[in-house]
Each structure stands twice: as structure tokens, then as C-alpha cells.
Amino acid sequence: MPLLDVNHLDVRFALRRGDVQALRDVSFSLERGERLGIVGESGAGKSVAAFSLLNLIAKPGYIAGGSIHFDGQDLTQMSDRALRHVRGHRMSMIFQDPMMTLNPVLSIGEQMVECLKAHRRISSREARAIALRKLEHVQIPSPSARLDQYPHELSGGMRQRVIIAIALLLDPDIIIADEPTTALDVTIQAEIMALLLELCEQHNVGLILITHDLGVVSQVTQRMLVMYAGRVIEQGPTREIINDPQHPYTQGLINALPQMATPGSRLNQIPGSMPSLDNLPTGCAFHPRCGFIDRADGTTRRACIDEVPGFVTSGNCRVACHMVAEMLERERIPAEEIR
Asked: Name one GO biological process term (predicted).
């Protein structure tokens, strides 16, 4: 049984003009110690998926359907009191901006001690000793001095290391990292991701990495999900998807990487933009931007416009695309004719 098993998750936001569906039929799993990446453009639903796992969706958002089983328990059916035991204890989250996460009027030590005492019956002295060890684990220089400093006294990279130390305080089973290096420069980004990977491997902690950076995903994760307009459209082993993307949207994301363009020429880009969730196109949500909606003979795949694609299996990946389904069907029929 997977440590985390998400099935047919639907998340909606109740607005005056009607409900807006932010996540549609999202399903995936995570084994203990496994590293999973979730990628897509802004507005794809990555962060909503991450917040849903801990039931941190703020009103007017709510989980409208599906289940989130963690270690055999459905988190969507838990009381707030039971969820508090899971949040921060067994599942921790690293947010995008450490300055928005850390309390500016409390020292680093006070915040770490407070977190520990909220979940364990220990003295302040014991909690401070654990906090010091965690700061040492994340390789912060002079950790004992940092405990008495305030967030504004630390650099961006050091603040993010503190956030990682707080996430590890209670030895969680899963860490959810929501674009943890967005506000950092490239050198510090690499250091933080290398540290996070090392800590997860050492402690057999599962990692869900939310990002738009395919380069980071390819280096850190073992499996990945590609999301578009609130739906998973491709999932499978990271290397397989990076080396041989099946969905046209995934192909577009990879082709948009700077290294895929000819030096001196314009960068490749996916035409158009992510649709608004309250005005999604019919059929496949990507079809207005897709360069493969028309076949080689000039005919249009009407299914792309009229029908939401189901998942088909291609290699070790699952893909929601009518074109891929059509190609797999063409490959299957000649093989049957030969037999």
C-alpha cells in the first residue's frame, strides 16, 4: 500500500457566479521515501493540489470529492483535531517565501521550540537542543547563534535552510515543497535542492516537489506529474517523460527550455496562455493551444474539441491525450493483423 494515495480529487471554489473547479479528477500515489515532482505553468493547479493534501484550502475553497489516504487514513474525513496531528508532524510543508512563513517578531529558536512543544510533551530545554541539531543538519553556520536571531537578520538562503530545519523537526514521513527556491539566486537554489535531496535520502522521507523548473525536477525526482488547467495530463517516471514526452503540452514545456533553442534565436514557446478555470474550453482543455489537433491529412480530431480525454498507457507513462490514444490504436491493429 502506498504511503500516500490520492484518488479522483476534486477541489472547487464557491464564488457568487458559481463554483469554479480548481482540481479535476486528480489521482496519484507516493511510496515511502519516494520523490515526486508536480510541474506545469502558473494556474495549472500545482499549489492547490499541495494545499489539498493537508486540507489547507482556505474558504471559499473546499474539497468537493475524492479521497486522500495517508498511511491508510482518509485525510478528507478527519476532524480538525486529528488533522493537526498530521500537519507538521507526519506531513510537513515548505512554502515559497520564507519571509511569509517565519514570524518576524519571534527569534528562530522561539519558533522552532514552539513548533516542537505543540506536538510533543517536552521541556523548552529539550526542544531547544533538538532545534539546534536540526539547524546543524541543514548546514547553517554557527547554529547556536542563529537560534537567537530574527528572520530579518538572515540571508534568503539561510532563511530557507531554517524553513527546511523546521519541516524536519518532527521527523515527518512526507515533505511537500511548494517552489522552495523561487526567491533565491541560481547558486543558492542548487545548494538548497542538493541539501533537500540529501536529507530526504538520509532519513527516507518522501518528497513532493511543486515547481515549474523541469531542470530541478529531472535532477531531484523519480516520478513526475504534469498538470494543465487543474488536471493531470501525463504522469510516469521522470527520466522517461523528460526523454520522451508524450503529451503535446509536455513536449511544449520541454521545448521551451533555453537549451532547446538555437543560440541567438528566439526561445521556443507554447502559443496562447493557460485558460481561466471559470471558462475552460470544451473537450481537452489544451486543444486551443495544441499544434497537433489537426492530422497530417488536414482533418481535425473532433474528439479533442468535444471529449475530455481519458488516460492511456504508453510505456511506463499514463497520458490523457486523444492523439496519443489514436497513435497507440494504429500500432495495436497492425500487430494483431500479423498474428
From this structure: peptide transport
